[in-house]
Amino acid sequence: MNKIAKFYDGELSTAIPVQIDHDMHGVFIKDLDWKTLAYYPCHLVVIEMPADSLPGVIGCMTAPDVRLLIEDSDLFSQIQSKMKKKVKSSHVLFSWITLMLLAVATIIFVILIVKFPYNYSRLIAESIPQSWDDTLGEYAAKAVTKDYVTCNNSSGQKALEKLMKGLVDASGKSISVTIKVFDDDSTMNAFAMSGNQIFVFSGLIKESQDYEELAGVLAHELGHVLKRHPTEGVIHALGLTLLFKLISSGSGQIDYVLNVSNLYLSLHYSRAHETEADDIAIHILTKTGVGVEGFLSTHPLTEDRINHIKEKLLEQSFFNKRIITKTEWAQIKAMCSVVSGNKERAKEKGS
Predict the structure, then answer these.
(1) Rounded to an integer, what distance in angstroms lies between the CA atom of residue 43 and that of residue 138?
(2) pLDDT of 343 above 70
(3) Measured at the alpha carbon of residue 280, what is the angle toward residues 279 and 286, in degrees to the nearest 5?
(4) Side-chain half-sphere of 62: how many Cα atoms within 13 Å?
(5) Is residue 331 part of a domain?
(6) Given this model, what pLDDT does residue 224 score?
(7) pLDDT value at position 247?
């Protein structure tokens, strides 16, 4: 295909008559004696279509100042046709490469699931975007909070958040942790949830003799949060398909949401998970000056975990400072008293 066109090379202000030869890889620009003036290995783009005796204009992606002015509509159509074929072939090649990569990734993924079921859960939990983790935690929190009354005493909540922030700062991580207290004196526990959330039952606060005992539990749960153990446990239990369905469908999939919220309450972490959370808790508690005696008294530990903790304590440097004051601890202790008082008055009124 050799026909006359006009060529702007981006340097001269006037166009020169040229012959062009276009293959699948670029454009040959030749003078009228068939001498090659330039070759542009590039993707061609249509700048203007020919219309009303005006020439069509074709440009080059990698040489933006280059222009080909083509008056011959047949020549323009031939070049445009080859441009489409090139684009189509490139897309086909890209599609095949993409499919091959996806196939390889799928095979590797299946092998990981079969050979290392818990490792794949951890890998995914650590790799998913924080926004996904937050979404999962948000929907599950909405479901679980429906079953409990939240203690919203402002001074107690502020003191509790100060305690939590002191523990987070000691961990060296720049994250924000949401902490709430459920009014349930019969439950002496706390649990972590996806989305950097920790929920505490009032029974734990009520039975804690000092803020150090509560801090020990919170530091341990913070360890689970930092390692994304709650999300890992959900992925391991539900599988990736249901997790994606929940995240993509949101609160509309209420059955899944409720199942996930109950799952957080009943998660049983592996020994490796508990050891990781213990190690993080000990590091945080010793760095903040919180005594580890409270941590030991509030956790039912096996003998091997106790021995491991003693070994970790030998590696730590101890500090002597308080995260919160005695007044603030008293505010935390009393933060559910208003809720409990309202419950008692409601019972008396009902009787």
Answers:
(1) 47
(2) no
(3) 90
(4) 8
(5) yes
(6) 95
(7) 58
Q: Are residues 146 and 51 located together in one domain of the fold?
A: no
Same domain, 134 and 261: yes
For residue 204, give the nearest of 187, 192, 218, 183 by alpha carbon: 187
Contact 228, 126 (CB under 8 A): yes
Strands across the sheet with 63-70, in order?
36-40, 27-30, 16-22, 3-8, 63-70, 56-60, 44-48
Judge if 154 and 295 occupy the same domain: yes
Q: Do 141 and 45 share a structural domain?
A: no
Residue range of the domain that includes 212: 129-350
* pLDDT, tens digit, 9 for 90 and up, residues 307-316: 776 666 655 5
Q: pLDDT-based confidence at 144, cuts 50/70/90?
A: confident
| Assigned domain for 7 exists | yes
CA distance 85 to 88: 5
- Asked which of 83, 117, 146 is the last residue of a domain, the reply is 83
Domain CATH number, residue 43: 2.30.29.30
- Residues 3, 5, 9, 14: is their CA dihedral positive or negative? positive
Q: CB-based burial of residue 72 (10 Å sphere; 0-12 exposed, 13-18 middle, 19+ buried)?
A: middle
Separation between Cα atoms, residue 162 and residue 195, nearest integer Å: 19
The domain tally of the chain equals 2
- Residue 298 near residue 216, CB atoms below 8 Å: yes
pLDDT band (50, 70, 90) for residue 241: low
69 and 191 fall within a common domain? no
Alpha-helical regions (H) of the chain: 73-115, 117-127, 130-144, 154-171, 202-207, 211-226, 229-238, 240-249, 254-266, 271-288, 292-298, 303-313, 326-333, 337-350
Q: What is the rounded CA–CA span in Å between residue 218 and residue 323?
A: 13
Worst-scoring range by mean pLDDT, 122-126, 254-258, 300-304? Answer: 254-258
d(CA 198, CA 177): 7
pLDDT score recorded for residue 118: 52
pLDDT on residue 143: 78
What distance in Å separates the CA atoms of residue 141 and residue 182, rounded to the nearest whole number? 12
What is d(CA 158, CA 28) in angstroms, rounded to the nearest whole number? 73
